[in-house]
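Please fill in the sequence for the structure shown.

STRUCTURE ENCODING:
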């Protein structure tokens, strides 16, 4: 059966976490689920054993997730800054960062089956504090699994319009990272104050 990629953007890390868990409960193999998220919410805390901060709590929420939690790691992606990444996209991202691949995150997402114009919005939104969940699924299950992701995901067309209204035209990998304060301000503009 042929595989397709489904991807959704989330403003709240808790919504992204629920989406990942929902996909797993629906039968998607952990090896086919990926997460790339801005680390502003401290998804990744280097010392999980100490239970320090929100990152440990979010990481613990993936308990029993096998390869996905084991692969949770911190990457520095040009234009995005520090992100946490897990799953098959994490491996692609790490490889692209290691070799300085042309096209960066946009090329990586496009190669995974994301339309380039959507990849631009996903990348900019991650830069501004968002989280991207992607899964490789059987084409026959696409609609059913997209419904799991839909309830709390960002409408990509509306996000593109909101970004364009600020003068944004495309993702710029040379742009400076957003500070924690800038991310909080962005979330305030979107009504995305919760974690």
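FILLED IN BY: designer on duty
SEQUENCE:
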């Amino acid at each position: 059966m042929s595989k397709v990629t489904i991807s959704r953007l989330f403003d709240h890390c808790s919504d992204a976490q629920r989406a990942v868990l929902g996909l797993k409960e629906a039968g998607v193999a952990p090896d086919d689920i990926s997460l790339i998220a801005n680390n502003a919410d401290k998804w990744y805390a280097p010392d999980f054993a100490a239970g320090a901060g929100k990152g440990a709590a979010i990481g613990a929420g993936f308990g029993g997730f096998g390869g996905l939690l084991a692969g949770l790691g911190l990457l520095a992606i040009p234009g995005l800054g520090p992100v946490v990444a897990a799953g098959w996209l994490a491996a692609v991202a790490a490889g692209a960062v290691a070799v300085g691949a042309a096209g960066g995150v946009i090329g990586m997402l496009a190669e995974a089956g994301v339309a380039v114009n959507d990849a631009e919005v996903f990348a900019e939104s991650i830069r501004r504090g968002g989280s991207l969940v992607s899964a490789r699924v059987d084409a026959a299950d696409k609609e059913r699994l997209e419904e799991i992701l839909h309830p709390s995901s960002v409408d990509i067309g509306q996000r593109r319009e909101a970004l364009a209204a600020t003068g944004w035209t495309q993702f710029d990998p040379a742009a400076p990272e957003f500070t924690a304060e800038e991310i909080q301000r962005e979330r305030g503009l979107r009504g995305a104050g919760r974690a």
